[in-house]
Amino acid sequence: MTHYTGLINNYRSRLPIADGVEAIELGEGQTPLIKLRNIPSKLGIDAEIYVKFEGLNITGSFKDRGMTMAVTAAVADGAKAIICASTGNTSAAAAAYAARAGIKAFVLIPEGKIAMGKLAQAMIHGCEIIQIEGNFDDGMRLVKEVAEHAPVTIVNSINPYRLQGQKTAAFEVVDELGDAPDYHCLPVGNAGNISGYWLGYSEYAGTSAEDSFVINHFKEMEYDRSAKGTKTPTMVGYQAAGAAPFAHGEMVDNPETVATAIRIGHPQSWDLAHAVEKESGGWFDALSDEEILAAQKLLAQSEGVFCEPASATSLAGALRDLKNGRIPQGSRIVCTLTGNGLKDPDTAMAQCSDTPITTVPATLDAVKAAIIG
Ligand code: AN7
After folding, report:
1. Is pTM, for the whole model, over 0.85?
2. Which class for 207: exposed (0-12), middle (13-18), buried (19 or more C-beta within 10 A)?
3. Which of 62, 98, 166, 283 has the fewest CB atoms inside 10 Å of its own CB, making it the most exposed?
4. Which residues have C-beta atoms less than 6 Å from ligand 1?
5. pLDDT tens, residue by residue, 8-33
6. What residues contact 130, with CB distance under 8 A and at least 6 apart?
């Protein structure tokens, strides 16, 4: 029997979930690692670039990896309700896994600033949606305050089980490629995901808690950390220019970007992310909305992969740093595409407003004329 039942069952010994605990799972994980075949030559780049397409998780984003862990642990602990603030994807995942577990979910979202697909997900899964007249950072502050007064478990990435689940994406990359890549590039909002990947890579590499702030951060949790003898990559985090606290070195009070998933000015994993930068020898940088959207379109039109705007930030950054030499030619690079393009049809349509759609009568002649001209 090879029925795949999600990342907890796949990597259970390396996760802080005991053997007897039933996983609340939806078959998440095992997402495709797609090697780019057209973009490098088109841009005159000599590099082996893979995209890890997390948009193929069950709710269409990488959040499912952390959410299966957070909800499994919460249910095992007797929780009856979970809560999160979200730019959209966390709320979709929380709503789905709460439905699966048969518990309640409350989600705080910024009014008018979440992509349509994500709002539809939160609604159809039947969670309690609270729109905040403010941004993600306001929602996060309120979630922390309200959780002190109500019997709800926070499932944002400050919940340590979240990053434990997200580290499995790094395991999958290494298990598939045979070793870590030279560079791993990610879009960064709260910086939970980049920290989760670094945790996974560092555990496989056998890094000790004394040598890593990130490993040390999780030292209370019990699970198998045995080395696989692999290397670690250089981690590179890319942000949207209007919401780039890491790239600018300070918190941003009024973040703005077309990539609403990463419209975050006060990231929650500030210290972890700086440890990742230092321990991996990596860096943070920012890209304009135009650069992000151009990369989204390039990927869709040159490779057939449709990711959401925030996700394209990783590829936009990697391509820019390959062209300017910060990432050397000949490198092996993995870019995480965090979410599915179908989440945000409005932004995709707006990008294609000059794409002609020909309307013709339903006759052979008319269709022939439209094709042949
Ligand atoms: C597509 O859903 O924070 O750096 O509330 O949805 O781990 O925060 C989403 C984040 C990148 C940034 N790409 O990841 C939320 C939320 C997509 C995302 C990120 C998010 P982190």
Report:
1. yes
2. buried
3. 283
4. 61, 86-90, 157, 187-193, 261-262, 308, 310-311, 338-339
5. 999 999 999 999 999 999 999 999 99
6. 106, 107, 108, 109
